[in-house]
């Protein structure tokens, strides 16, 4: 095998592992002796330095690791500081709307309405700061009560929960019919 093929394998190993990898393990993986493997790693380090790449290979007590060059940290920090775009799936939106209209509400009440577990959805909404714990219900087991946050109001452009659209009885019946039809289709499958 040519040196560049060995180098590609070493690069893949170091990139994938993330942490440092002992020279002996790398040598065993590419089926070369430690001296030849070290020569390849030294060449790779030099090539990375000469080509002005953003990554480097460092040696740590007989192990090697691929990492970002220190001069690139400021750019990584800029990316890390950018707000992440939240993805509100249909499940999250459905759960959020139940919480918004029924608050304060427990997970079991949400699950009763949705018909499925809501742990992940509620946890994700809490993580996005759209929902928060409001306290505990004075009932057996003292379940948590959830409600919307100020971030929810900001995100949806309303000043208060009272500004949420009110559904007419016709719309409610239409939604019920759609849900029943959807359930019938799912049961037939």
UniProtKB/TrEMBL annotation:
Localization of this protein: Cytoplasm
Coiled coil: 27-61
GO cellular component, as recorded: cytoplasm
Keywords associated with the record: Cell cycle, Cell division, Chromosome partition, Coiled coil, Cytoplasm
UniProt-listed Pfam families: SMC_ScpB
Chief location: cytoplasm
GO process terms (BP): cell division; chromosome separation; DNA replication
Transmembrane segments: none
Function, as annotated: Participates in chromosomal partition during cell division. May act via the formation of a condensin-like complex containing Smc and ScpA that pull DNA away from mid-cell into both cell halves.
HAMAP family per UniProt: ScpB
Quaternary data: Homodimer. Homodimerization may be required to stabilize the binding of ScpA to the Smc head domains. Component of a cohesin-like complex composed of ScpA, ScpB and the Smc homodimer, in which ScpA and ScpB bind to the head domain of Smc. The presence of the three proteins is required for the association of the complex with DNA.
Family: Belongs to the ScpB family.
Protein name (Swiss-Prot/TrEMBL): Segregation and condensation protein B
Organismal lineage: Bacteria, Bacillati, Bacillota, Clostridia, Lachnospirales
Designated gene of the protein: scpB
């Amino acid at each position: 095998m040519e040196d560049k093929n060995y180098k590609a394998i070493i690069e893949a190993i170091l990139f994938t592992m993330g942490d440092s990898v002992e020279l002996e393990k790398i040598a065993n993986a590419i089926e070369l002796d430690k001296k030849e493997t070290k020569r390849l790693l030294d060449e790779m380090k030099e090539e990375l330095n000469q080509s002005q790449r953003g990554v480097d290979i460092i040696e740590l007590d007989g192990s090697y690791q691929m990492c970002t060059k220190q001069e690139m940290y400021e750019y990584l920090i800029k990316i890390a500081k950018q707000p992440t775009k939240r993805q509100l799936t249909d499940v999250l939106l459905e759960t959020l709307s139940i919480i918004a209209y029924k608050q304060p509400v427990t997970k079991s009440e949400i699950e009763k309405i949705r018909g499925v577990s809501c742990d992940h959805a509620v946890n994700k909404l809490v993580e996005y700061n759209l929902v928060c714990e409001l306290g505990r219900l004075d009932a057996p087991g003292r379940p948590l009560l959830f409600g919307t946050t100020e971030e929810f109001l900001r995100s949806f452009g309303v000043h208060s929960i009272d500004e949420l659209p009110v559904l007419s009885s016709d719309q409610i019946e239409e939604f019920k019919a759609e849900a029943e039809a959807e359930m019938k289709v799912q049961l037939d499958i």
